[in-house]
Amino acid sequence: MGIDVIFKIAGIGIIAAVVNSILDKTDKKEISTFVTIAALVIVLVIVMDMIGGLFGTLKSIFYLD
Is 42 in contact with 12 (CB distance < 8 Å)? Predict the structure, then answer.
C-alpha cells in the first residue's frame, strides 16, 4: 500500500486524460465528460478503500473492536 497506489491513481488519470483529449477532438464531449466522471469515481473508490483500512488499523491499535 505504498507507491503502487500512487502509480495506479496516476495511471488512471493519464488514461482518462488521453481518452478525454481524443473524444474532445472528435466532438464527443458528452462521452468525454462521462469518462472523466468514471475515472473520478474509480479513484474515489480506491481512496475510500485506503481510508477504510486506516480506520481499521486505528481501531485495532486502540483496541476498539
Answer: yes
Give the SS3 label for residue 62.
coil
**Cell 486506516, located at residue:** 54
* pLDDT tens sequence across 28-39: 999 999 999 999
Contacts of 1 (CB under 8 A, 6+ apart): 50, 53
How far is Cα 57 from Cα 61, in angstroms, rounded to an integer? 6
Residues 6 or more apart whose Cβ sits within 8 Å of residue 19? 32, 35
Find out whether 54 and 31 touch, Cβ atoms under 8 Å. no
Query: How many whole angstroms separate alpha carbon 24 and alpha carbon 12?
Result: 18
- Contact present, 23 and 35 (Cβ < 8 Å): yes
Global pTM reads 0.84
